[in-house]
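User: Structure tokens for both sequences below?

Assistant:
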Amino acid sequence: MAQTNVTPVKFGIDLFSVRSSGWTAFQYLDYCAKFKVKVVHFSEIRFLGSLDEEHVRRVKAHADKHGIELEIGMRSICPTSKLFDPAQGTAEEQLTRLIKAGRAAGSKLVRAFLGSMADRTGDLPIEAHIENTVKVLRAVRSRAMDANLKIAIENHAGDMQGRELKMLIEEAGKDFVGACIDSGNPVWTLEDPHVTLETLHPYVLTSHVRDSQLWRVPEGVAVRWTRMGEGNVDIDSYLRKYLELCPGRAISMEIIVTGPRTFPVFDPKFWDGYRNVPAWQFSRFLAAADKGKPSPAPPKPADAAAQERTDLEASIQYTQRLLNL
């Protein structure tokens, strides 16, 4: 018997998946439209091409022709992060520009992030970076509310575990701040992606999805990002739980295929940036690694842009079959 009252899947593509293509915003939209997506996630300004309001309106009009909803984003808004670019103005100024562009694009959110794993081991603890990001967010609250959009903070490149991003959202104000939950980045913070989803699902505004492979090595744990269906974090179950826990939120492919990254968890010095990680949580990460098998780095492609598209399209096909789209 056919199911009824099921929320339709809002399937999308994050343009970072095809970051090397160098297309215009209009070309990116034409490419994504071939896969009948409902959302295209412009995670960085470079994919949009310009924040000029007239340009953004033209991009929105082109998206409307394809029946595509736009989500726009930027990079770090933490002024003390190693990834923050002060040449672009203060964090508040940068975020304000994106809020204005988001309104012109019809985006319901602006995606941003704190930083990367490098911010866990610098002069400041991660908690200080979180506090500084919260201050920036509180400073733009009225502008975001006036524009009728929210700020979606990503768990990005090993910067925060799910519980840390939850703390950031609650301290900034969950009335206008939520999560852009990424399924690949948790393994760069010693976290099982399922733990991240269990922690953040009440705050999720949108998502990035990719698969990961984990396995044990003599010095600790190796991880690498893979195409969908080629990892061992049970991405199928993750997606089904996401649909149940985050109905109506976008599932956007952010496919990044990498070589292994090793986390030397048996070196006491390594833990300087992770002393607040709960043991029960780390044990779930280890359990996933124990199930994994060594996964060598893929060969370096002759054409990076073409390989990115191949990886993305294989992942789209896998995910659309899985979700019966």
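Moving on to the next sequence.
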Amino acid sequence: MDILFYIAAGAGVGLAIGLTGVGGGSLMTPLLIMFGFPYNVAIGTDLLYAAITKAGGMVTHARQRTVQWRTVGFLAAGSIPASIVTAQLLKTVFADSSEYEGILTRSLGVMLVLTASVILFNGHIREKTVQSEGPLARFFRDHTDLVIFLAGLFLGVFVTLSSVGAGAFCAAILMVLYPRMPALKIIGTDISHAVPLTLIAGLAHLILLGNVDFMLLACLLVGSLPAIQVGTKLAARIPGKLLQTSIAMMLLAMGVKFAVF
């Protein structure tokens, strides 16, 4: 029965991803925690789940040439080393997972709040950054590569600690730094960075910390991969904006809970 339940959970999250485009990390990790999985196992398993489910999207965008690979390179130059160092520090500093559960909990809460805020104010962020001519906007334009690298460092640390942020939050960073970049290219660049980051972070959780449940991962993938395709086909018939807003409010509430309590 547990196996069927996990497959159904994967299908539910996969359907939501297909319908709204909201990343699996922000939905799957809190769901697994609600099922009673330890924070560290939920995060480690979800990172590999995210890498596998996003890989097809990366290939599609690469074929369509909707990826800015130079930006992916600068993001990865910061995020991948930061991810490995973060996992190594968890292994070195703490004797077992119970000692760093508080760090994971607070990181998850913060990233859920940030992700929910990005989903809610996505259009406003893009409009403001296109129109902005202030000193901060000029600084970003003059030092884009450095800012992208630093953003990668931030993502590497917090995606490893929470499994959240490689999708919507990274896309928001790209919108701020490249306000006139076509939306499809932002998505392609975002996904093409998320795949190696979540893969490396997931492998770090597996190899260094032992935080991956393979049976759970297989069940989630069996349920979610076909459901993503179904959701994508249904998306044109259902008001995705309303669903996105509903999911964002739910993520915001859970984020506050994890961050504060």
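User: Anything stand out in the second?

Assistant: The longest helix spans residues 183-209.
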